[in-house]
Amino acid sequence: MRIEIEKALVLISQKFRQKLTTEMLAEEAGLSAFHFHRLFVEENGLTPQKYIEKLRLEHAAHVMVLNPGLKMIQLAFESGFSSPSSFSRSFQQYFRMSPSRFKKEQRPTYQGDATATEEHYRLTKGLEISYLGHQYFKTQLIHPIPEEIEAKAKELCPDEDRIIYGIYLDAPIHHDPLDCRYLIGLPSKKTANHNANMEGGYFLHFEVLGNMDVLREQLLGIHKYLLHLNYAIKTPIAMEKFQVAKNETPFRYLDSPRELFIPIIKK
Description:
Blueprint: H1 3-15, H2 22-29, H3 33-44, H4 48-66, H5 72-78, H6 84-95, H7 99-105, H8 118-124, E1 128-132, E2 135-142, H9 146-156, E3 162-168, E4 182-188, E5 196-198, E6 201-208, H10 212-228, E7 231-233, E8 238-244, E9 258-266
Antiparallel strand pairs: 1-6, 2-4, 2-5, 3-4, 3-8, 6-9, 7-9, 8-9
Helix pairs in contact: 1-2, 2-3, 5-6
């Protein structure tokens, strides 16, 4: 995928609730609106506006699983829609079912006591809320599956130990990882060569070790924890970092501790 389109995808992932015109995205990509629109459709199979709507709907589905008690009007505005009616109509068209039916058919969230149970403590132990400044990266686009991450990570550190960063453009929690996109790379300065960035702000920071099933369980417990502190997940985009040693052969992604950073906002 072209760097210009990757920059636009990152911007959409971070600001999908806001009004984003094709002209604004083209400016981020450094292309004319016409050229950007054509390339975006070629790369993603959707127009920029249809892609934004898709991201809003998938975010809404994610929120419904984590917080099934959220009212429809709150869910619509939280996901960037102008009204509950437009949200329901778009949701029905995309998922082929109403939001209420979707909510009933999803797995319930972690049901433990939000403050005291041993299980909740295990799932949220070591959580920190940290402030990070704006960060820039030079990355490559792959799928968030261990084999691809392992191969690309070793390419990035042939001569020295490196801290590798990954950015989830799509959350592989409710989607097949082969349908998701993951940017992997190294920190960069703000130059013409950087193609990904994370906006500064507050992040929930914790360590994960294991596969997506383990991470899913952590996230369900973590969401309870956030609600208790009156925070909410800000965007579906998340960042992780892990270390790869130059002489680590073979490097095993799932056996390595990863630090995950999830952008959050005070409710």
